[in-house]
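Lab meeting, item 3. Inverse folding demo.
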């Protein structure tokens, strides 16, 4: 099939490369000329494991091209996929200006039957709007379909090539047939729904996963108060098939480009329909507060925030999760900002997200470190905010040597007691008893 993908952000680029890998001829389009130039020259503007190799392979086979000429790309295609951004507007609602602009251009380029697929996450009813815009600009016959994307950053290629399910929201048999053909080699789990339900499936899935995270985080907070261990609790809960083991990892909460945006957008969608989505509002609020649990633990151990003045605090991990350089809505942003506000000196290190973090939050008191060990030097505490693999392999005997006080506050629960048994470390995590040498501090925390 000939496919045009409009928008080369995460979803568009990964989808485009993966559709090419399935044997289709794909043209990816973007308005940002610099981005397209990078792609044309063989670069990949995002950090995503495996994506470059797959893109190179398909480029060599002549199945993958990049252009900023939307009209030409659409003219050459049977399927046109809209994968542009839907950033949050002032009240959390999805801003549809890029979707609408893409629809206008598609309408102007129509030269025969095409299926227009919306992959961007859009409020219920948006596909119909796209249909109206395209129809207002052409007499050609076309169909519209919603095929939401469920890929995760860091495992985007795998998630796209081996999805749990494909959702096709389409009402024309011709479009359904074409899209089934396009996706049939990926999974037998293809569900066909009406367009509005497909749009809702995406929001409902993300909102449910966010709810699971905020739920386990609140359980973790209670575990801390009653002396239980949330990792044991999550294991015990997850063995019930109705609950399942995934997304029950307690920590400092979710970030990224999807959960924060989509939860707020769904609250807004519900509100527009006169429905107060109370549960999801709480999920968002719990997530906002959860990241500050790290600061509470610092206060419990080092002392009140006014005593932070001039103190160095190592910050391990800035990306919102491992295997990505994405810092959008990352808990690290709020945590580092709070440290700065209290006069502390954050010594930050991330294996790949340093530049992105600096472009959002740059401040003279931040020390930009080249290694985890450097970030620990002369620090009063280390806050671990992203569960990068390299942190799991830390030699804590070496780290202990360079710190002023061997204190680790682990926002992602990646270690067990055995890691610290030959050290002086005091270790705090989320929803689990503290362990290590400083039992006095542990008492403080347990209240
Ligand atoms: C998410 C959805 O998983 C994906 O289906 C959708 O298409 C886009 O949004 P992504 O944001 O890339 O993907 O990352 P994901 O792995 O889902 O993690 C999201 C956030 O939740 C991260 O900040 C992660 O640290 C956090 N998380 C995840 C937890 O805190 N606990 C968990 O158990 C799982």
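The presenter then showed the designed sequence:
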């Amino acid at each position: 099939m000939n496919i045009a993908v409009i928008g080369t952000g995460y979803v568009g680029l990964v989808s485009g490369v993966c559709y090419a890998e399935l044997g289709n001829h794909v043209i990816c389009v973007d308005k940002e000329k610099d981005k397209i130039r990078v792609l044309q020259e063989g670069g990949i503007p995002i950090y995503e494991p495996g994506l470059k190799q797959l893109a190179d392979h398909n480029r060599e086979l002549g199945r993958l091209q990049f252009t900023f000429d939307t009209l030409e790309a659409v003219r050459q295609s049977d399927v046109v996929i809209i994968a542009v951004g839907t950033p949050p507007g002032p009240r959390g609602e999805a801003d549809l200006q890029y979707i609408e602009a893409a629809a206008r251009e598609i309408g102007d380029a129509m030269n025969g039957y095409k299926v227009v697929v919306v992959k961007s996450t859009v409020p219920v009813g948006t596909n119909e709007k796209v249909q109206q815009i395209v129809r207002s600009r052409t007499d050609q016959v076309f169909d519209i379909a919603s095929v939401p994307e469920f890929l995760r950053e860091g495992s985007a290629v795998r998630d796209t090539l081996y999805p749990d399910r494909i959702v096709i929201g389409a009402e024309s048999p011709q479009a359904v047939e074409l899209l089934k053909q396009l996706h049939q080699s990926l999974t037998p789990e293809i569900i066909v729904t009406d367009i509005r339900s497909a749009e809702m499936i995406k929001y409902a899935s993300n909102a449910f996963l966010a709810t699971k995270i905020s739920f386990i985080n609140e359980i973790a907070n209670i575990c801390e108060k009653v002396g239980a261990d949330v990792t044991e609790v999550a294991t015990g809960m997850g063995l019930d098939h109705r609950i399942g083991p995934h997304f029950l990892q307690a920590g400092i909460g979710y970030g990224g480009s999807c959960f924060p945006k989509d939860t707020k957008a769904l609250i807004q969608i519900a509100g527009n329909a006169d429905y107060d989505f109370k549960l999801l509002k709480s999920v968002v609020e719990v997530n906002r507060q959860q990241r500050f649990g790290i600061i509470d633990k610092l206060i419990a151990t080092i002392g009140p925030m006014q005593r932070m003045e001039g103190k160095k605090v190592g910050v391990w991990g800035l990306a919102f999760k491992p295997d990505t350089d994405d810092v959008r809505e990352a808990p690290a942003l709020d945590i580092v900002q709070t440290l700065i506000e209290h006069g502390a000196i954050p010594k930050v290190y991330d294996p790949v997200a340093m530049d992105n973090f600096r472009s959002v939050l740059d401040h003279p008191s931040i020390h930009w470190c080249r290694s985890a060990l450097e970030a620990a030097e002369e620090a009063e505490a280390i806050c671990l905010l992203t569960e990068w693999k390299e942190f799991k392999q830390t030699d804590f005997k070496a780290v202990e040597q360079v710190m002023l006080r061997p204190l680790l506050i682990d926002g992602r629960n990646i270690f067990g007691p055995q890691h610290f048994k030959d050290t002086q470390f005091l270790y705090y995590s989320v929803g689990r008893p503290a362990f290590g040498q400083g039992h006095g501090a542990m008492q403080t925390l347990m209240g």
